[in-house]
Each structure stands twice: as C-alpha cells, then as structure tokens.
Design a protein that fits this description.
The complex is a heterodimer of chains A (354) and B (305). Chain A has 354 residues and is an alpha+beta fold. Chain A has helices at residues 34-44, 79-84, 110-119, 139-143, 146-149, 156-160, 162-166, 173-183, 191-200, 213-217, 224-238, 247-261, 266-275, 285-293, 295-303, 309-313, 320-334, 344-347; strands spanning 2-10, 20-28, 64-67, 70-73, 91-94, 101-103, 106-107. In chain B, strands 2-1-3-4 form a 4-stranded parallel beta sheet, with helices on both faces. Chain B has a 4-stranded parallel beta sheet with strand order 6-5-7-8, sandwiched between helices. Classes of the chains: A alpha+beta (354), B alpha/beta (305).
Chain lengths: 354, 305
C-alpha cells in the first residue's frame, strides 16, 4: 500500500460558486487506477465528488478526465505512473475540456460529443437492393476500418482538440473518425455524398490543423487525425471533390508545386490554394480578393526584407537532375493502379524491432 | 560534430533569417553543416495526406542523401514540421522491411538506398542530447539575463509522443524550456506553449487559424513574456508574419516578438542582432534588443513605431 494525494477540480454550476481545487489523500497499491483513488476519496471522505464510471476496465469509455493536464481514462491510468507525471507529486484530476461541466469531473457529453456524432449520419446507408441474407464482405476491405472501429466514445480526443478550442463548430476528431468508419465500409452506398458533405462544411475535414492532440489523447489507438487524413485522401484523390474551403485546391497546389520545384514555393502556394492549381491563379477573383486582404502583411514583409522580390518571384528550385528524379518518383508512385498505404496499427512492426 | 543538415523549405524561402542564423551559430557551437541541397520538401503532412507512399519515398530519398554524407554523425533539421513529417515517414520505413524494400526499389533508379535507423534530430534535440546543456551554457557569452521568454514548440515536435520518442527518460517536450534556462533567460509558463499556431488551416479557415495564433500570443503577453521563441518556421509565419492580422481577429494589440531558436541561441553566444536577421521580422523585437547599443535584454525599451 502507498499513499497518493489527488487534487480534484470541484465545480457545481448550480451552486453559483466558482470552481476550486480540493486535495484528498488515499491509500492504495501503486498499480491501482486513478479512478479507484477517486472512488476511495468519495467513499471515505466526501460522498459528493462527481465522477462518471462504469466498467473500470477501459472499455465503456465513461471515465474520461484530464490527469495532470492530459486527457485519458481514469480507470486506465495507474496511480504510480500518474504521480510520476505530476509536477509537484500531487495527481491533478480535472474534467475534460471543450465540453460544459455538469458537476465536478462529469462533463456534458450530449451537448458536444454526441451531437457531433449525430452530425455525421453515424449509421450504415446500405446499398440497394439489400441482400436477403447477410452482406458478404471481403476481409481486406474491413481491415481498413478496424482502427476507427476501436473507438469507445470516451471523448478524450474531443476534450483536447485544438481546432475545436477556437472553433466550437468543428465536427471534431471523434465524429470524423466515425465518419471514416462508414466511408471506408464497402457496404455503404453514400460514400460520395458523405465526403462531399464533410469537405464542403466549413467546419468539416479541412478544419483540422494536424496538431496530433487527438492521437495522443486516444486510449485505444484510434488516431482520429489519421482517419481525417484518410477522409481527405478519399475526397481529394479518389473523388476529386472541390470544396469551398480551398482544402482540395491547397493539397493539389502543394503536391504539384513540390513536383515542379522540388521545394515548397510559398509565394505560389497561397494564390493557388485560393484560385486553383495554375500559375494564373493569382489573377482569379477568389485569389485576388484574398491576396488583397493580405497586402499589408506582404508589404511589411517586403519592407523588412523578410521576403524579397527575388524570393517571391524567383523561388528556390532544386537542380535539374534532382527535379527529374523527383518527377520520376511522382510518375511511378502516382501511376500505380492502387494507392499503397501502410497502417502500422494494422500491420504492426517487424519483430526484430524492440 | 558533423551533421547532414536539412534546412527545409521555409527557412530558405519566407523565413531566410532562420537558415542564415543557423549558419551563424554553427561554427560557434562546433557544428559542421553539410547541407542536403538535393532533397525535396518533406511534404509537411500534406503530401502524405494526398499519397502516403509518395511522401515516404520523397523523404526516404532525403534520408538516403543524408546517409551518403561522409562522416556525418546524424541528420539535423531546423524545422519542427520537417521533424514531425519526416519522423512519420521514417516510422513506417523503419517498422517494416518489406515496405522499405518497396520504397527503395523506386529510389534504385537514382542509385540511392535508405538503410533503416537514421538519426534525424531537430537543432533543439541536438543541443540537449548531443551537445549537452552544460556545454551549451559554457559557450554563452552574453547571458539572456532578465529576458522573459515564452517557449512555443510547434505541434510536430511534441506530438505524437510515441513516434517522437518522448517519455520520462527523454522529456523532449521540455527541451525548449531547458535551453532558454541554459542561455540565462527566464522561462515564461503560459497556456499556449504546446498548442497549435493554426498555420496549417490558414487557407481553409483563416479566422480559426488566426484566432489560434492570436490567442497564444495574447496568453504570452498576459504572462509578461518579452518574446516567444520557436523551433518551427511555419509557426513563425503565423505568429510573426500574420501577427498584424491575428491582432485584428482577437481584437487587441499584441506586439509580441517571435524569435527563431537559432536567433535566441545566437544572441546568447554574443552575435549581433543584425547578424541574426532580427531586423527582418514583422514584429520588431524591440523588447529583446536595444538597437542603439545592440545589448540584449534591455527589457522595456520603447517601441519605435
């Protein structure tokens, strides 16, 4: 047995009082979970501590909280490990972020998480005619969605999503991972419609900033951000869906500029992201408007010689022989009949790697 | 030490002062830079989003070029985004011999091969893990005394932790704090230090993008930082170049200087601000430097605009 101190965030919105921290000391074996610590504090010292939990085995997804500032399941975090990660030896537990607090460590999942899940039509829209008996699905085609199927709806990724922090309307990591589970399902008939919907929503797939927060947050290895990237890949490369958010244009411009120059040509990337993948993009109204609004920034950068007319107009470029090699790589890889993707969640690593 | 040096694209394009300041500090740190000048853009995650194998192959090519540099101890980059995007590709290449062979087959046209296990470190990691903080401290000529610096890491160099090898034994997500301290500065703890600058969605959702930049800078202002420092040139674009627009979005003045990591190191090593290209920033680092005497840490010097 060992002693652990928990610093719990207490808050009761109905009381009208501000949130506060409260310390509780518990005695448990070090490999016991933070959840057990909270439950002991509740059983022995203060029965009013609010925490939602059920299975205590990291499968029901009820006890999502932030421990020492990081999201996770209270039942899936050992006390000793949590203590090592604490800045002053006291394990800090607070409610998840991006969702309203109902009481103490309990957040309103309905108001945010489940609403967003509903947003992506989270059920199969089967192809017609529906077979008399079961659908027969090739094994390989389902392997692709097993990673997103592993989601237990705990909300840890939603809690720390940095896009949602500034844009609460962002559909977010959990719901978009769910969306990929259906987009990747060969039985679903609405693949294109789903992708068009998610690409054209200003708070859809192109609102993710690649911050990797959700990948670290997820206790089940779902890597929601990777699922969002898969959605973009399907939308852009397979269905060529042009969206009003410049998402597909930006990707196309980026990829083709690197083919052309070997390096990123920032001065061209911006206008092409708005106006399309052509050197004339900057003269299109959509790009011109955007560039005009950026003029003060550009002028200042030129003034400070941060950006010189030379770097802006004559971008860096790799030597000819390297550009040729890069072009050959593009031709070969993009010319394959099928895109080749390695998902380490599914394939694992070679055994000789430790 | 000799390194195969990967500067990335932005440090040679829109933030030339980054590449320039790295070149200035290298001899003072006894780092010999052999530039990989034939490698392609890492893709910043966007090429991988388009076609994973394409990004993996382009980066494998860069890794192979780095491995050809004679006598280089490792590959070094100066861009968080390069670090993250390249680490992602390297993780797949190193994890699976069959896949590596598949990618190498494409590189064979050029006579290149990537052998697994390349060490590719951002300057930040190199300073702490290869040089060591004690050694860095001993080379400081002008300690950044009284300079209050907010670290801004950039997402790609702190997440995902598994892939980047961040754990209790190797707390790479604290290195920027450690380096600021070693240079004699004071670390400012503020909410945005490990958050996203918003740059990747600047063309997709400009308001959300600038709100992120503005909010983190405002947090640094409120925590009384004199400046923030970042190992990521893309963060620098949103935090410095776009700061005037970010100010409009968050509805308050910020005037927060943003330094590249080699610039901060260079100031402490005794280099003049002009040599480090500090005059090129959109937000003048007046709080960091008294331009009349070129003395560091004249905190509170009046802004001249």
């Amino acid at each position: 047995m060992a002693e652990f101190t928990l610093r719990l965030r207490r808050y009761d919105p109905e009381s009208g009082e501000a949130a506060y921290w409260e310390e509780h000391t518990v005695e448990l074996e070090p490999h016991r979970s933070v959840l057990e610590g909270i439950l002991q504090a509740r059983a022995t010292t203060d029965g009013s501590i609010g925490i939602r939990c059920s299975c205590r085995a990291a499968i029901c997804g009820s006890c999502g909280v932030r421990i020492n500032g990081r999201p996770g399941l209270a039942c899936h975090t050992h006390l000793d490990k949590a203590q090592r990660g604490a800045k002053d030896g006291v394990i800090e537990v607070e409610p998840m972020g991006n969702m309203p607090i109902i009481k103490d460590l309990i957040v309103d999942m309905d108001a945010v998480h489940w609403k967003k899940i509903q947003r992506v039509t989270p059920w199969l829209q089967p192809k017609q005619p529906v077979p008399e008996r079961e659908y027969v699905v090739a094994h390989e085609s389902m392997v692709d969605v097993t990673q997103s199927l592993a989601c237990i709806q705990c909300g840890a990724c939603v809690s720390d999503c940095l896009s949602m922090e500034v844009d609460p309307d962002f559909i977010g990591p959990a719901a978009l991972a769910k969306a990929y589970r259906l987009v990747g399902d060969p039985r679903d008939a609405a693949t294109r419609a789903r992708l068009e919907d998610l690409a054209s929503d200003p708070h859809g797939i192109y609102d993710c900033t690649h911050c990797f927060k959700c990948i670290d947050a997820c206790p089940k290895g779902v890597a929601p951000m990777s699922q969002i990237m898969r959605l973009r890949r399907r939308a852009g490369s397979d269905f060529h869906i042009e969206d009003p958010n410049n998402g597909e244009r930006h990707e196309r411009a980026f990829v083709s500029l690197v083919r052309q120059y070997g390096l990123l040509n920032e001065a061209e990337l911006l206008p092409r992201s708005y106006g399309g993948d052509s050197a004339l993009a900057k003269f299109k109204p959509s790009a011109a408007k955007e560039l005009a609004s950026s003029l003060p920034v550009i002028a200042k950068a030129l003034l400070r010689r941060k950006v010189t007319p030379t770097t802006a107009l004559k971008p860096h470029k790799l030597p000819k022989q390297d550009l040729d090699a890069i072009e050959r790589i593009y031709d070969k890889v993009e010319g394959r009949d099928e895109r080749f993707e390695l998902n380490l969640y599914i394939s694992g690593r070679d055994e000789d790697l430790t | 030490m000799k390194v195969a040096y990967w500067p990335g694209c932005v440090s040679r394009g829109f933030t030339p002062e980054l590449h320039g300041s790295m070149a200035r500090i290298a001899p003072l740190l006894d780092i010999e830079l052999v530039e990989i000048d034939r490698g392609a853009c890492c893709g910043a995650g966007v090429i991988a989003e388009h076609n994973q194998e394409l990004a993996d192959t382009l980066n494998a090519r860069t890794f192979a070029l780095a491995q050809q540099v004679d006598g280089a101890a490792m590959m070094m980059n100066i861009c968080s985004t390069c670090q993250g995007a390249q680490s992602e590709c390297q993780e797949r290449l190193d994890a699976n011999a069959e896949y590596r062979a598949h990618v190498n087959e494409t590189l064979a046209d050029e006579g290149l091969t990537y052998e697994s296990g390349l060490s590719n470190k951002n300057l930040l990691w190199l300073l702490v893990e290869e040089m060591g903080l004690a050694e860095l401290r001993s080379r400081v000529r002008r300690p950044l005394t009284d300079l209050k610096v907010g670290p801004f890491y950039g997402c790609y160099i702190v997440r995902p932790m598994d892939r980047l090898g961040i754990d209790e034994a190797q707390p790479r997500d604290t290195y920027l704090d450690l380096v600021i301290e070693a240079l004699g500065g004071t670390v400012i703890d503020y909410a945005g230090s490990h958050k996203c600058c918003g740059f990747p969605i600047i063309t997709m959702n400009k308001e959300a993008s600038l709100k992120q930049a503005g909010r983190h800078l405002a947090d640094a202002v409120d925590a009384a930082a004199d400046c923030v420092v970042t190992p990521c040139p893309l963060c620098h674009l949103n935090l410095d170049l776009q700061q005037p627009l970010a100010e409009k979005v968050v509805g308050r003045g910020l005037n927060m200087p943003v330094l590249h990591l080699p610039q901060l190191v260079g100031l402490a090593l005794g280099l003049a601000p002009g040599e480090l290209g500090l005059q090129r920033h959109v937000v003048k680092p007046t709080a960091v430097i008294d331009w009349t005497t070129a003395v560091v840490a004249e905190v509170g010097a009046p802004a001249d605009e």
